[in-house]
């Protein structure tokens, strides 16, 4: 696992006001569809992986939210989107 410093260096590459706003908008959309997703961390510009890991990606709630927010996900920076897709979420965990 990369060190905190290495992760922050990687986050700095994807962080910008527009990108942070895109990810914040995406998180807001997911919340409006019932998922407990926090706004991006102000220091990194990313949603903490430990928070994303709490989401049950096999639940109907997640599938509905993902479908509803898909157009916003396309605006999320590649590094942040990749981190979100790499989260190993165990079925039956989270909401």
Give an overview of the whole structure:
This protein is mostly helical and 95 residues long. It has one domain (4-86). 57% of the residues lie in helices and 0% in strands. It has 5 helices and no strands. It has helices at 4-14, 17-32, 49-52, 60-73, 78-86. The chain is globular.
Sequence stretches where pLDDT stays below 50 over 5 or more residues: 6-14, 88-95
Class from helix and strand fractions: mainly alpha
Beta-strand segment tally:
0
Q: Which series of helices and strands comes N to C?
A: HHHHH
Number of domains: 1
Largest sheet: none
List the helices and strands and how they pair.
Blueprint: H1 4-14, H2 17-32, H3 49-52, H4 60-73, H5 78-86
Helix pairs in contact: 2-4
In short:
The chain has 95 residues and is mostly helical. The protein is built from 5 helices and no strands. The protein is globular and about 30 Å long.
Highlighted features:
single chain; 95 residues; mainly alpha
